Amino acid sequence: MKYICECCGEEREDWPAIAYNAPVFYSDLNEEDAGNSELTSDLCIIENQEYTYLFIRTVMVQEVSDSCQDLEYGIWVSLSEKSFNEYVENYNNKAFEAEYFGWLSTYLPDYDFEESIPTTVVVNNNIGRPFVFPHQSYEHPFVHDFYNGITKIEAEKRINRILNKE
Prior knowledge:
Layout: E1 2-4, E2 11-13, E3 18-19, H1 31-35, E4 38-39, E5 43-47, E6 52-62, E7 71-79, H2 81-89, E8 97-104, E9 118-124, E10 131-134, H3 141-148, H4 152-162
Parallel strand pairs: 3-7
Antiparallel strand pairs: 1-2, 4-5, 5-6, 6-7, 7-8, 8-9, 9-10
């Protein structure tokens, strides 16, 4: 969709969101665990013999420092059982708002992830999917870029990689 940007006055076309259909762990499931798991467009439950993992789909907005547009991601975070159940119970309640602690469960190809990153998940059902914010105190290039922005060239590189144009 083309429009005139209020920031720069130029005609623009929105960047597509970079969306992931499942948490990173879902693609690693063996046949038995996949059969015991559930995946929808917004929720994922992975059950194995030892534990149940609970995930929700969220939105992360990455600032692009030299552009009027920001880059959006559709990513997954894991929640505690209590937080997940509260979120599911209020899924259709437009007045529901909450904040949860979660762990990043989507690993973006531009970064090395040796472990998951702690996040804050902000739920406001009136505006749609929850927004996620990595904890600023966590030392990782992903967190640094989230809070300091990336360049337009980097944003377009990421979009093109997802669209298989690179």
